[in-house]
Design a protein that fits this description.
alpha+beta; 5-stranded mixed beta sheet; 5-stranded antiparallel beta sheet; 10 strands; elongated
């Protein structure tokens, strides 16, 4: 059974490699993130089990929101951290999803943490989208609304 799962994980990695380039190994660089997912991969084994603390580096060109997923065999993931800040993991049918908002331009680190009983393999994907910036028209409406509220409050005080 374990061999079947390892073969399935290996074929998942091979299929992902064909779609989005070779996945980065722990300590590797995911490059400049874009809306096209970048893949990362980890594996290991120990007779008595152990912990996972894999680091990956990446960069973003401007203020961005980060979206990713991670799944695999034999690992229990406790957290995914961006620059040391934990993201919330949401359970999916194939693993876990995570997101991080308001990432500034520049270089960053992604850290995968977890545990495993004897052996594990995982693959993840992460991509960046530009952060939402309010349109000038939206700001104008906000300030106009605040002005109306202020005028109503002033009239009530005068009466």
């Amino acid at each position: 059974m374990k061999l079947k799962m390892l073969v399935a994980a290996a074929s998942l990695v091979a299929a992902g490699s064909a779609l989005a380039g070779a996945p980065a190994l722990p300590g590797g660089d995911l490059g400049a993130l874009t809306p096209t997912p970048a893949l990362f991969f980890g594996q290991g084994a120990a007779a008595a089990g152990g912990t996972i603390a894999d680091l990956f580096t990446f960069s973003v060109g401007g203020n961005s929101d980060l979206i990713g997923s991670i799944g695999g065999y034999g690992a229990t993931f406790s957290s995914v951290l961006i620059d040391g800040v934990a993201t919330s993991l949401t359970s999916t049918t194939t693993g876990y999803g995570f997101s991080f908002s308001g990432l500034s331009a520049g270089s960053h680190t992604l850290k995968v943490e977890g545990a495993f009983p004897t052996l594990y393999t995982y693959i993840g994907a992460v991509y960046a989208t530009p952060s939402a910036v309010p349109e000038p028209e939206s700001l104008a409406l906000i300030f106009a609304g605040l002005g109306v509220v202020g005028m109503v409050a002033r009239r009530r005080q005068a009466a």
